[in-house]
Amino acid sequence: MIPYLTISIVALLAAALTFFSGFGLGTLLLPAFAIFLPVEVAVGATAVVHLANNLFKVALMGRHADRAITPVFAATSAAGALVGAYALTRIVGAAPLCSYAVFGHAFHVTLVKVVVAALMIGFAILDLTPATSRWGLPRRYLWMGGLLSGFFGGLSGHQGALRSAFLVRTNMPKEALVGTRAVCAVAVDASRLLVYSVAAFMITGGASPTTGAAATARSLHESGTWPLVAVGCGAALLGSLLGTRLLKEVTIVGVRATVAVALLLMGVAVGAGLV
Q1: How much is the mean pLDDT over the chain?
Q2: For the chain, which terminus, N or C, has the lower number of CB atoms within 10 Å?
Q3: Side-chain-facing half-sphere of 89: CA atoms under 13 Å
Q4: Does residue 41 have a pLDDT over 80?
């Protein structure tokens, strides 16, 4: 009973928060799953809930997605994710820059995490500085934002934060921002999962892969985790529904402030190797 209650509460609150920030569900949900499941199974369970929540948000808000920005940003994000995911398959096992332990838990700082953290913190400082808070991002540069956020999404999984950092500066309405982010997130998830699965198939010669989508499905089935994952998906849906209600009460300034603070906190956590 306790695992279901814990996952439900975390998924609901994280999904509601992610509705505004555009990122954070996986970061908050993975530790919750890891309390009750082996780490490799927790990662798979989190990935399923993360993708399902993005699909929920597309169903809820996809119609509000900006018709001019979304095709460009989604296409370049998907392309960047393909490259990033392929790069990940080539550098798996690379030595971290440094490692340390806190209360018996090991944390690793990698070059990828340092770069992602620097970008997050830089965008957060820009958004929190009054003189720059109103600066917009010319739409002709959006393709670069799509490539960059998609690349790091495929490489390290840190896609939502950078995507929000770019899109929030286009000054589009809050409903369009949420819808556009959701569509782009699904594009990135689909692209990187495709590469991970193909890589796993090639590595194993098509027999019982140890990584990728097939391995994730098998590990969840063998561990009997699907009911817990289903509860997490349901709670995330409720959180997204709650987000749609709260979205009517907040301003785009409030959304941007939420993104900026979340970016700063996430940047510090990523740079320290905590995420």
Answers
A1: 83
A2: N
A3: 19
A4: no
Helix/strand/coil (H/E/C) assignment for every residue in 186-249: HHHHHHHHHHHHHHHHHHHCCCCCCCHHHHHHHHHHHCCCHHHHHHHHHHHHHHHHHHHHHHCC
Whole-angstrom distance, CA of residue 191 vs CA of residue 150: 9
Q: Quote the tokens at residue 94.
A: 């690379």
For range 52-62, the mean pLDDT: 92
Query: pLDDT of 147-180, one tens digit each?
Result: 999 998 888 777 788 898 889 888 889 999 999 9
pLDDT attached to residue 216:
56
Q: Is 206 left (phi over 0), alpha (psi -120 to 50) or beta?
A: left
Q: Cβ distance 85 to 213 under 8 Å? A: no
The pLDDT tens digits of the residues spanning 94-143 come to: 788 899 988 777 888 888 888 888 888 988 887 788 776 666 677 788 89
How many CB atoms within 10 Å of residue 53? 27
Distance in angstroms (rounded) separating the CA atoms of residues 142 and 4: 41
Place of tokens 């301003």: 251
Q: Please state the pTM of the whole predicted model.
A: 0.80
| Cβ–Cβ < 8 Å for 197, 94 | no
